[in-house]
Amino acid sequence: MMKSERILVIGSNGQIGSVLVEYLRGIYGENGVVASDLREPDHKPDYFEKLDATDANGLAAIVKKHGITQIYHLAAILSARGEQDPLNTWQINMQTYFNVLEVAREHGVRKIFYPSSIAVFGDHVDVTADQYSYLDPATVYGISKAAGENWSNYYFKRYGLDIRSLRYPGIISYQSMPGGGTTDYAVDIYHKAVKGEHFECFLKEDTTLPMIYMSDAMDATVRLMEASADSISIRTGYNLAGMSFSPKEIAASISKIIHGFEISYKPDFRQAIAESWPQHIDDTVARKDWGWRPAYTLDKMTEEMISELQKKYKTVKA
Ligand code: NAD
Ligand code: AKB
Question: Given CB 3.0 to 4.6 Å as the disulfide criterion, which of 36, 83, 235, 250 pairs with 49?
């Protein structure tokens, strides 16, 4: 039986949103999800509403029109793109979130999902970030995510808004392309490999970062949102781990299937961002509180990514 919720996804055209909307429709039904974004998608479905989430009145009108009970607020400027215009990034990331918090409070929205990031960590963490590691983010994106986490906690304590949040690692998907992050290379590399092209990586070969496969990220997100409120001990953002690898290791994993795949390295400004992030995430608290376990290893993800992208590009590689 479908669950009776009316969910608004803000930023639905992005890497996560375009997969999440379909995932949520599978759980809450075709009428359970309203998708919204700044831009209309190429094939606009009838459950899509165009919305600039910096416009609080526009957001409130959609919430009222559809009787929204939950908001997944995905709209943001990510780490690498965010550094091109720091003040604008702060303005968009924070204004959109304040609008979500206030509209939710005023119009009886029961639950909010706020995607945080491993970018909340900074130089203070040497290798592994645990749940309570100190937050000293090096990018304006990371600063906005750390601030957003604290505002989530504030609205929970002050107004009882049921806000839940994950510190996503870099997300890897075949369905959608990433939009302006530092972990984007780990999606691009699969596309180049499947097309039989050489890949030039913007990070050094030994730069290890935390990553997660989209399927695991979807599972974690809904598992957290469906957990009973009394099992949620973290109201800032939960650490979440999938796997950790370097460009050299992902290239080696791809080479097991696509023989002769070639990679070279030309680090740019994103190297410094990557070096400010932890290499590993300790997600013990998420595992204990709501039973989180990732299903994918690097090699299992590589097999699925290559097989799905081969269908997309209709190439046959062995
Ligand atoms: P994305 O850049 O692919 O998509 C963001 C979407 O938000 C875009 O479609 C964009 O048009 C939309 N948007 C931007 N400004 C908007 C506005 N003012 N109003 C309405 N829509 C607007 O990002 P993503 O990778 O899908 O990430 C979604 C969320 O998850 C972000 O908050 C991001 O910080 C977080 N996150 C993503 C990753 C990842 O690896 N993808 C990792 C950690 C956290
Ligand atoms: C980025 O690289 O900016 C994102 C993230 C880890 O938040 N993928």
Answer: 36
pLDDT of 314 above 90: no
Which of 74, 97, 218, 277 for mutating ligand 1's site (highest number of atoms within 8 Å of CB)?
A: 74
pLDDT (tens digit, 9 = 90+) per residue, 162-203? 999 999 999 999 999 998 999 999 999 999 999 999 999 999
Domains of the chain, CATH where assigned:
7-169+213-239 (3.40.50.720), 172-209+242-281+295-313 (3.90.25)
Residue type, 51: L
Helices (H), the chain: 17-28, 56-66, 79-82, 86-106, 140-159, 185-194, 214-226, 247-255, 270-276, 284-290, 298-313
Q: Which amino acid belongs to residue 5?
A: E
- Whether the pLDDT of residue 4 is over 90: the answer is no
Query: Exactly one of 141, 168, 174, 296 is catalytic; which is it?
Result: 141
From ligand 2's centre to the CA of 181, what distance in Å?
5
